[in-house]
Design a protein that fits this description.
Layout lengths: L12 H7 L10 H14 L4 H13 L6 H12 L6 H6 L4 H4 L9 H10 L6 H18 L3 H9 L2 H6 L6 H16 L2 E3 H8 L10 H11 L2 E2 L4 E3 L23 H8 L4
Antiparallel strand pairs: 1-3, 2-3
C-alpha cells in the first residue's frame, strides 16, 4: 500500500489541524505556513501538501505573496525529484511568473503583447528565480546530472536561491544516487563523480566520492575504477515469459465468419 499524497511524518499538529479544517483557506494562516516552510528548510523535512496550501493562499491573495517562501518551496521540491512536486508547485504560480519576458518587440502588436505579458516590476526577480529553478528541474528530469551541477555552480543566483535550504547539495546527491541505483549495476568512477558533483582532480579529490559511495550508498569501489551497485528489484535484469491460454472454441465465431458468404 502506497503512502497517501497528503502524508508527512514530521508535520506538527497545529499544521495538520489547519490543513484538515476551514482555516486552510484563511489568509491569516499565511504567516504560519511561511514559518513552516522556513522550518522545513532548516530541519531537512518536507511537506508537499502544506507547501501547496501556502501557494494556493498566495493564488487567492496575491498581495500576501512573498518571494522567499515561493523559491524555498521550489528548491525543496527539487530535493525529492523525480516526484512531480516541482510541477505541482509551478501550476499554482501566476502565468506571468512562469513565462519569460519576450526578448524583442519588432511591431506594434508585439509591443502590445510584451506590455501585457511582462511581469510587474516587483515580480521580475521572482520570475527570473523561477526560470532558473525550472532549468534545474528540466536537467534533473532529463538525467543530465553533470550539466545540472555545472549550471548550479555557474551562476551566483543559484547560491542565493539554495542558501536557506540546509544540506541542499547532499540531498541532491542522495536523490541522484537513488535513481542511479535503480538503473545501473556498475558505473565508471569518473562518470559517477560527474553525476554526483564531485571533483576527482587535486590531492584527495576522490576521497569525498568514495566516502559517499561506501558510507551513504553502501556500494563497492573496485581497483579498476568501477563502482558496483548491489542488485535490487529495480536494476535486476529478469526475463519475462508471457503465456496465454486460448481455447479453440473461443475462435469458433471467427472461423465461422470466415466461411460465411458476404451479404
Amino acid at each position: 500500500m502506497g503512502v497517501s499524497f497528503d502524508y508527512a511524518p514530521d508535520r506538527p499538529e497545529h499544521i495538520d489541524a489547519i490543513l484538515n479544517g476551514l482555516d486552510r483557506y484563511n489568509p491569516e494562516t499565511t504567516t504560519i505556513f511561511q514559518d513552516y516552510v522556513a522550518q522545513q528548510c532548516e530541519d531537512r523535512t518536507y511537506d508537499c501538501y502544506a507547501n501547496l496550501a501556502l501557494l494556493k493562499l498566495y493564488q487567492f491573495n496575491p498581495h500576501l505573496t512573498r518571494d522567499e517562501p515561493v523559491t524555498n518551496i521550489l528548491v525543496k521540491a527539487l530535493t525529492v525529484f523525480p516526484s512531480p512536486d516541482f510541477s505541482l508547485a509551478c501550476h499554482l504560480l501566476p502565468p506571468h511568473i512562469l513565462s519569460p519576458a519576450p526578448a524583442t518587440a519588432s511591431s506594434s502588436s508585439a509591443s502590445t503583447f510584451a506590455a501585457n505579458s511582462n511581469p510587474p516590476p516587483g515580480d521580475a526577480p521572482l520570475s527570473e528565480a523561477v526560470q532558473k529553478l525550472s532549468l534545474l528541474n528540466t536537467l534533473l528530469c532529463a538525467a543530465r546530472y553533470q550539466e545540472f551541477w555545472r549550471t548550479l555552480d555557474g551562476d551566483d543566483l543559484y547560491a542565493d536561491l539554495i542558501a536557506d535550504v540546509s544540506g541542499f547539495e547532499e540531498l541532491m546527491r542522495v536523490r541522484i544516487a537513488v535513481t542511479v541505483g535503480q538503473s545501473c549495476r556498475e558505473v565508471e568512477r569518473g562518470v559517477l563523480a560527474g553525476w554526483l558533483g564531485f571533483s576527482l582532480q587535486g590531492p584527495g579529490g576522490g576521497e569525498a566520492l568514495e566516502r559517499f559511495v561506501r558510507g551513504v550508498c553502501g556500494w563497492g569501489v573496485e581497483e579498476g575504477g568501477v563502482v558496483r551497485v548491489p542488485v535490487n528489484k529495480e536494476n535486476e535484469a529478469k526475463g519475462s515469459v508471457v503465456r496465454e491460454e486460448v481455447r479453440f472454441d473461443q475462435f469458433s465465431r471467427v472461423i465461422r465468419r470466415a466461411y460465411e458468404q458476404p451479404a
